[in-house]
Design brief:
- The chain has one domain.
- It is elongated.
- It is built from 2 helices and no strands.
- The longest helix is centred in the middle third of the chain and has 20 residues.
- It starts with a helix and ends with a helix.
- By secondary structure, the chain is an all-alpha fold.
- The protein is about 80% helix and about 0% strand.
- This is Pex N-terminal domain-containing protein.
Length: about 30
């Protein structure tokens, strides 16, 4: 599991994850 240690566990990742969770349902509704 090198990718886990390669990516820094920063708040930015949590923000991107939050945006991802928000965008997925939005796109799902549009499609």
């Amino acid at each position: 599991v090198t990718s886990s240690s390669e990516l820094p566990a920063t708040p930015a990742r949590r923000f991107l994850f939050l945006v991802y969770q928000t965008i997925v349902p939005y796109l799902a509704e549009r499609i």
